[in-house]
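[User] Could I get a sequence and structure tokens?

[Assistant]
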Amino acid sequence: MAVTLFFLTIGIWISCVLSDPWLVTGFAGLWGLVLWIRMKKPAVCIFWGVLSLTIVAGILWNQAFPEPDPRPGLYQVYEVRAGYVLAANGSSRILYQDQEANIHDELYIENLKPLTGLKNLHLFDFADSMAAKGVRWRGTGYIRTASDSLQGRLMRYVRNSPAKMAAFYGIREKDSLLVKAGLPVVAFLMVFENLLRRRMKPNAVHFCLLPPAILWGWLFLWPAALMRWVLFRLIRLSGLQPLAAWSLSVLLFLILQPEKAASFSLVFPALLQLCSITRRRSCTRYLMALLQILYFGSLSCTLFGGYSLLRLLSAASFALAFFDISLEIEWMLPEIPIPAAPVLLVVAAILLLRYMIMQKHPQLLLCSLLIMPVSPYLDPFFHVYMLDIGQGDCTLVVEPFCRSAVMIDAAGNLYRDNAESVILPFLEAAGIRKLDALIVSHEDFDHAGAVEAVQDGISVHTVIRDPTQPVPVEYPMLNLLPDRTSPDENEGSLLTYFSYDGHGYFWPGDAGILTEKLLMDTFADLPVTVLKAGHHGSASASCPAFLEWLSPDLVLLSAGRNNRYGHPSPEVITSLQSMNTARFCTAESGMIHLASWHGFLFLETAEGQVSCLSTPAGR
């Protein structure tokens, strides 16, 4: 019974994480096959099928009948984070940016706007993380009434103590390993539980710790880690086996807080406890490493090697917080950035190999994690990444096996540091340690505003502003019409053309119709598979005659969401539609990623669109 409940719980948990009807349907079929192979009980498989259909039907119902858009009015704060709070009015939830609002405060919201943000592969998407919590709108207004509840008064009392806010609420301006290792109160309870077990029976220990833990949860808003800790121990009091108690505690948590199904504060402690229950403690270290990579895109040498010590330190930070002492660890080893996607592929391959040969070699997993830092140098694909940078341009071109990396433009932004928040983090996530060249099409801020900041953050071999300057790569990459004269800076943009795997790419900066006519007069033919539309899709470029002459298979447009220029222009969109040319815009799709290999050309976007654009036979 415990094993059956465990497998059903895992299936429900993964379904909650996937949350897409097609993905859930596919997973349900695969998991049903696993249940049949593992248990060979028709009743269990039928129950899983009914349960899966219910989950899919629930998802489809929510998509067909979404919650109505929130309206201005009164909202009550139900969650406080660093720099913002979440508030609700009935089923409507919004985000409100304020440093002073506390739990249960009453807000009057005057204006509402959709919560949007930049969407880039491998980078944290704040808007998506809020959408997972059911929050899709941002409100502005004022605090109408300060809460008089005990929880509200308690938060106001500790608000000026960073140590208490971090230890009691998990609110910290900058994340730390102590936060990643687990909420300090849970670490404190676990350490105290181990001490009590030396003198008391397990049930007596639970009776001693559960009342203060429940009281603490009520006072400090039930953090996810603490809620699951309490649920597990409450269920254990009934005498259920540890595995069954673990399964029921996860199920109850998913019922109470389904939006946190994929949260690190649930996944991390729950899976570590599962390793302990199933007596597979040797896997704990490898699981910790894998979760770090998947959630944070890096591997902390300290946490990988010393979780027990960090748990003690986390418990100590909780105790010291009562005295306003913040425990900061200065001696921690550095973190190694590791992209998550290749890790998943390698781990899947190892698990398949292990299943085929039916041998236990956990050292294989460790070896796979150790080679991940060099995984970009094992990648045979040619990559073109058009970053979602807002109203501006930034493209990264990476040769197979990371033989070279070239960036075309690095846009600035008046309201954020694009280099610090987008460009440099993406380069780190992609495993790029240096740029062979940074091509600046022209000096407009939306193309060159972050160039100096990028140079400060990563080694750049050469910055190319002169069209006659060669690009230091081994494949064809050159700037067309280097000797032309132009009436303005936009028309004088560098015209970067490169080709690889039989596909041509043309990036014309902000060059307009005059330059396009000059190109048509100069070249009899220019083989282009992918065109980045000039001047962000403005009507001053991409004239119908030029588009017909190039006849690209795909047109990319780089523009900010709801930009004040109206890019891309309706005229350009109409021209592309009349030609039946595929198009993708960063304002709609987020980052656009192209990957080619021996004539194949694949596309993926940060919004989840995937396509095979070309095959060797179709060239």
